[in-house]
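User: My collaborator sent over this chain with a note saying "see what the structure looks like." That's all I know about it. Can you take a look?
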Amino acid sequence: MAFEGLTEKLSAAFKKLRGKGRLTEADVKEAMKEIRMALLEADVNFKIVKQFVAGVTERAIGSDVLESLTPAQMIIKIVNEELIALMGGESTKLTISPKPPTVVMLVGLNGAGKTTNGAKLAGFMKKHNGKRPLLVACDTFRPAAITQLEVVGSQVDVPVFQMGLGDPVEIAKAGIEHARRHGNDMVFVDTAGRLHVDEELMDQLKEMKAAIQPDEILLIVDAMIGQDAVNAAKAFDEALDITGVMLTKLDGDARGGAALSIKAVTGKPIKFAGVGEKLDQIEVFHPDRMASRILGMGDMLSLIEKAQQSFDMQKAAELEQKLRKNKFTLSDFYEQLCQVRQMGSLTDLAGMLPGMNPKALEGASVDEKALSRTEAIILSMTPQERENPSLLNNSRKKRIAAGSGTQVVDINRLLKQFDLMQQMTKHFTGGKMKRKAGMFGRMKGMKFPF
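Assistant: Without extra context I'll predict from the sequence alone. Here is the result:
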């Protein structure tokens, strides 16, 4: 999970501050040393670390902080505000041209995921902003890039314009003209990359920029390469004057240094973040929400948005009525497992809950085969058995096991998980949210069927 190491170290530093009550200037400076080391270990640019720590220290040793009743909380507030400022202050949207189509030129090194994330962006703009995007295949350098773009384009239901292995600049111009004629109001131009920044690549991109005059030049950069991501961003910005950055594989970078350094080094905002391999796992980058996650304060807004995107609201209303009446069935259980699976990993979801340690769900894993078994078991039951699992005696379990290609032990495991889910719903519907940590704690080590 992104920033995992940084979050732990900052939490430890703040815990020491809280334990002291009243703070002295020496206490603050000692905490700042720990924060400095935490940021450096998170692979944040050393110049940025120096400026950040100096800024926090200057604000934290003021009399209004040290003489307040809760100085530790005041310092955490200052760190939060400085982290938000470091990452850009507020989220930045794509620039939409008043005269369609809006042209977005995607640039970056090989392996950063330009093609896949171009499709992610196009799908995101179609689904959440009502746009009619077109993907244009201008990567004529990498074998199979055009085929890859057509495959991912079809998966997000976005058309792809291609002219084979011709001149990329002419293909881009023809693609934009095609968009005008066919009513596409956004064009995402997938350009060629290299394994490193070179003169030939930059010359080609400069020529394309001059020819198509894009509204956005979005740099796609792999968060997992750390400071190399920052160096690449700097090089592309100096050559092309990029308008923004999309960080990919942010979910796989436990350090997160690139996210904390790019805006400060280039002055250009991070606009989107890729948070998983699936084509719908893309988020608008919100500096305030990311700072909140880093400090272990959760991110309820993103959690709510994920739930709204994943859950059918009508079914959710029906489920609410069932929960109120304690009529949660195995059919409902399976339906909820499928919808929760769409929201992402349990560890990531736990990280969005304030005060919840993501490691509370570290042992809970996503298992596609187990989900298939769960579906087979539930579909092998009669409607009466799904409504009332207490009917399931040994002979019925043997029949269901034979019908679903599973064993009785699999059915018993499912029933145990269902019983746990019922207990949780009683706690939540009863307004006892304060017990959530204990409930999630019981999940640790369980292998969930989603």
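A starting point for your reply to your collaborator: The chain has three domains: 4-86, 102-297, 303-443.
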